Known about the structure:
Order of helices and strands: HEEH
Structural class: mainly alpha
Largest sheet: 2 strands, antiparallel
Strand content: 5-15%
Mean pLDDT: 94
Helix content: over 70%
Shape: rod-shaped
Radius of gyration: 25 Å
Amino acid sequence: MSSLSVIEAKLESESKAFQQLQKELQKVIESRQRLDSQQQENELVNKEFGLLKSDANIYKLIGPVLVKQDKSEATTNVKNRLDLIGSEIKRVENQLKELTEKSEMKKNTIGELQMQYQQLASQK
């Protein structure tokens, strides 16, 4: 097996790994966007709760039924959800950072292999 074909095989392998990283990165980005949307929704609900009187009626949709809910319970639920979303955002941010770094390293490796391949191909 010649040096050229060895580098070709490595290039192909690294390119597939890079494509896989890109797919994972895209999934994590979509997850982050969903979390942003959920966070904005819950912040809006939390803000609305602040405008309500203490004796206001609050209903929660459970399946096809609206169920009356205590304001303090509803407020606590939304705040807990915001905390949960916040910690999930941090986790996803770390994942994004990690995948971006791995992706950059793969890109550099591919670039180096391409240069090696071109040098060997020009020598023949």
